[in-house]
Specification:
Rep; single chain; DNA binding; DNA replication
Amino acid sequence: MEKRLKAMAQGLNRLMKYKKVSQNMIDFMRSTEVTANKKDSSYNQHMR
């Protein structure tokens, strides 16, 4: 799970470095949500 969260954060950081993205951003807030499925002991990560 930790590797996936790190990869997601790196991808978002790469996206923010694009000129068109950075010029059109006024402000930005990132949040990370991890949900757990108790039935099959799996996790699902979301980055918003």
